């Protein structure tokens, strides 16, 4: 954009420089070369440089909100501190037609122009604006093609088990072959952290434990990311790319899944510092939203459906007393366990019968097709007898279906031991909450304050 300048007014110019990591290696595109050209141009025009904004190692494919220096420059424009934006070439600024017009709206509102030192553009005519659109479209297409090439390279790297960057989760290191290799000392800390968390269901407690024992100080966000890091099982699953054998595992897939289940159930203590034993476990039978704990007369703890009380979207206006629920659980756990065991046995029997019936039907279908082949002279008698014997033997020796592992209620039954009630009564409220979460996944309560079903964890 070029306009005849007023001799009475000195222009304030902002210099914008962008270069990707690869481009920094190319002569003529370096940060220093761009800055030198822009400063020389501004000096020859007699302009005042209001600021220099440099987005280093930022590719043209980066979204605008990820270009920090560009955003700071636009804030200066909005404060009316800049009259002209100056850059070397149009592709230093944009490779997107859509982004260009979004920014142009801001520039027009604040009477700010733009100019390139190495190219000529005219925004005052239709042909000039069309030329800009064509240039931006070509630049955007080049960026998209580059992105597709990068995607192909990344796909190949992940499939071969090689890393795409030098960073890796705590417990691993990148070896000479660009693969993740277990760091035995750090991996032992990761395993200990997962074990401790699974046992105590406390992120902060685990962080404190690791800090005391190993001197490793993780923040809450870092440790939570670690607990969700699937790479610890040897599986790469990011950005649509998947490799189940990407690296050696530190954590078993079974333990990883148990920890994910605990993370979903575990919630933060409420701001009033009251510990509700059944937080996150109670679910309204009417609307399937979790019940929330509250204090009545600052003494008695109850649970209610806030979907009714706060949003009026549920008919359940009842509440249930924590002590009452606790007593009911101890009185009825045994019968609830038997219900689940019976339901499991019936379900397995049905699955087994269905599976066997399906296998028999498949073999009988093959025998029928075999007979048709023989009748229609498509196979001779020897082939028929040979295949008939194979299928008949398979039918007679049809193996039993895989036996499913029955649910393990050993942890729950510990609660029913005669001596355990005394131990339980001496636990803190936090310890009681952790205990119930370790054995129960969900308790459903209806509007009559009745437990309708229990799902064991």
Describe the 3D structure:
It is a single chain. By secondary structure, this protein is α/β, with parallel strands linked by helices. The protein folds into 3 domains: 12-143, Resolvase, N-terminal catalytic domain (Rossmann fold); 172-265, Alpha-Beta Complex (Hect, E3 ligase catalytic domain fold); 324-456, no CATH class. It is built from 15 helices and 14 strands. The chain has helices at 31-45, 68-78, 90-93, 97-109, 126-160, 184-200, 203-214, 220-227, 253-265, 306-309, 322-375, 381-396, 410-414, 420-425, 429-439, and strands at residues 12-19, 48-56, 84-87, 113-116, 172-174, 180-182, 236-238, 241-243, 282-284, 292-296, 300-304, 319-321, 440-445, 451-456. Strands 2-1-3-4 form a 4-stranded parallel sheet, sandwiched between helices. A 3-stranded mixed sheet has the order 9-13-14. Strands 10-11-12 form a 3-stranded antiparallel sheet. A hairpin with a 5-residue loop joins strand 13 and strand 14 (451-456). Helix 6 runs antiparallel to helix 7 (203-214) and helix 11 (322-375) packs antiparallel against helix 12 (381-396). The chain is extended, with a radius of gyration of 34 Å. It starts with 11 loop residues before the first strand and ends with a strand.
